[in-house]
């Protein structure tokens, strides 16, 4: 949940580190810090607040001399976001500085042990114990000290380490959580995400759990858990730094909403060849596919909502039973999962801790795993048996938009591919569905164009204290995502409800102050939705209707209207989420919220 970056080379380190840190701020933004090695000293500046604040304190990093260092942006887990709890953390005599992403689960025991040895702690963090262990085990051999320290730690962690007595040298260790090495010319880097590196190098190494790396300006050496040197594959990042910049938009979120036609197109086009969906890289045989008695989809947050949509679509097309479960619940159950289960894991980052744990649990029980992931080389992508990459490009705003819609596109591709392989589709319907998939990028563009008035609706409705999103069938699944989008960036309470369920209790909350967003895009259920709209209007609620373009009846029912373009009804969740994204964005903007970095959140939830 934090971002870390390390640099060693011949340039002044701190400005490079701060630039990298700025690009990692989506991972955590309650405090930040930087440390550089200069002579035989470590110089550190850290403070609560943003990376911009840290840059102010250090003159953009220029006040810190030195060509080797570490930086960190924090999402607090242990200890409040104060100056002292900000990373890096120094060892007792200042020999070591450490930055950390993750949780050291046995930190309390280690802290008691160190306090008994007379060490006085400066922070409340779990990380500080690491700095003290390093100093304790250092006898002139840095690698040995790092390995001995790592062997004492339990939990999930990525660590960056610098020592005042080892000029130009950095170590990093990975035990769950993302860590990428960047290979430059006469300079090398590590970071939590390629976005921090891509302005300086596109040649990267994805580290695996249990590995550590030693970096100097000239050389990068990777070791396994036993300290044996290993050879790693060097990958080439295919996108440019512009993809991770705002490109003239006021917020990353708006830019990412507008990028959706292209992102959905890349996701779909790369998998359609000669009119057929192609997953030739899958290891799933037709026999295996027929042998699955159920599909389990697991994920968190918006990725879970994509999974709920996936259930409707896969069951409708494949006639296979699909269960969708939150990864944080699935991981602690005793689920009925075996070799006849196909597990679908959905994750933008590929690093979500609960999703990884649920995936491991299900795979240990024999399930085959298909992962739908955006970040190339991420943990989930590497653990899965098969991967569909979503090709959304880097998503920086904490609230996902193109990440979610490309997940839907991937699930639709899979559903149609699987249905055809199971013999559930005749050629005509298959061709029709493939055409409908190919039409999705232009429908997303149409959804943007149709709803530019969302900003005016936001002006009218931004003062709401609490909202309901209601829908039926796929509209209900889309309502879950629409509701989350609004609440996470505008801090307005909102709930998604199955429209038919409202009268079983929740309608007690409806009064004349309430705005109800009614999703009415499943046309065969339109009349049912009209009844639900009338129920809430009879109790004084105002209604913002979302209907298919050209539907005029909605004007008679709703106070205001958003539109989704007409297309294949099974795939409606994808274009229909766009107006809800725009509405959420403009409401949050009206309310002056920090849209790209909402309070208390982080983009990638790598802790439980
Ligand atoms: O990286 P993942 O897709 O695994 O992330 C899952 C959720 O943490 C994520 O979708 C979260 O709910 C977003 N804030 C939603 O906008």
Explain what this protein looks like in three dimensions.
InterPro entries: GATase_2_dom, GFAT, GFAT_N, GlmS/AgaS_SIS, GlmS/FrlB_SIS, Ntn_hydrolases_N, SIS_dom, SIS_dom_sf. Catalyzes the first step in hexosamine metabolism, converting fructose-6P into glucosamine-6P using glutamine as a nitrogen source. One of its GO terms (molecular function) is glutamine-fructose-6-phosphate transaminase (isomerizing) activity. Homodimer. Its EC number is 2.6.1.16. This protein has 608 residues and is α/β, with parallel strands linked by helices. It contains 19 helices and 27 strands. The strands form five sheets. The protein has an eight-stranded antiparallel β-sheet, with helices on one face. Strand 23 (466-471), helix 16 and strand 24 form a beta-alpha-beta unit. Helix 14 (427-450) packs parallel to helix 19. The protein is globular and about 75 Å long. 57% of the residues are buried. The model has no long low-confidence stretch (mean pLDDT 94). The structure holds 5-amino-5-deoxy-1-O-phosphono-D-mannitol. 5-amino-5-deoxy-1-O-phosphono-D-mannitol binds next to helix 9.
